[in-house]
């Protein structure tokens, strides 16, 4: 059995996005599908869009950057198994095998933050997959 304690800090707005299902948690780091877009993903998403394009859709070159970004995100969500398989929703994280916590905090400068994490004892397999003894991931901009 091993002991584990993790701590993560993020903006309250980012935490709320996670709670709404817009982000996934990867070992204490909250990521959007757009954070996982690589140049390879962009090429694959473009090819898939062109392959499935019908006569009423815009050509890829005519799409706005925002529309292309939506295509990239959809591609990651549907085709990048590592994003969905390795990330955890808020519910999965908070209701996992370890005890979890979340606390709101306002910094001296007025930034609204959330501190969250897990703690407890677990078998070494989970310990190795999670964090070592203590890990701090800060994604505050």
Question: Would you give an account of this structure?
Answer:
There is one protein chain. The protein is an alpha+beta fold. It has helices spanning 12-19, 39-52, 65-79, 81-86, 90-94, 124-129; strands at 2-11, 24-26, 29-31, 99-106, 112-122, 134-138. The protein contains six helices and six strands; from the N terminus they run βαββααααββαβ. The strands form two sheets. Strands 4-5-1-6 form a four-stranded mixed beta sheet. Strands 2-3 form a two-stranded antiparallel sheet. Mean pLDDT is 81; it is low at 124-141. The two termini are 36 Å apart. The chain is elongated and about 55 Å long.
How is this fold's topology laid out?
Blueprint: E1 2-11, H1 12-19, E2 24-26, E3 29-31, H2 39-52, H3 65-79, H4 81-86, H5 90-94, E4 99-106, E5 112-122, H6 124-129, E6 134-138
Parallel strand pairs: 1-6
Antiparallel strand pairs: 1-5, 2-3, 4-5
Name some characteristics of this structure.
141 residues; alpha+beta; two-stranded antiparallel ribbon; 6 helices; 6 strands; elongated
The side-by-side strand order for the widest beta sheet comes to 4-5-1-6
Mean pLDDT: 81
Q: Give the number of DSSP strands.
A: 6
Which range does the strand content fall in?
A: 25-35%
Bin the helical content. Answer: 25-40%
Largest sheet: 4 strands, mixed
Radius of gyration: 19 Å
Structural class: alpha+beta
Spatial shape: elongated
The N- and C-terminal alpha carbons lie at a distance of 36 Å
Unreliable parts? 124-141
Secondary-structure element series: EHEEHHHHEEHE
Work out the helix count: 6
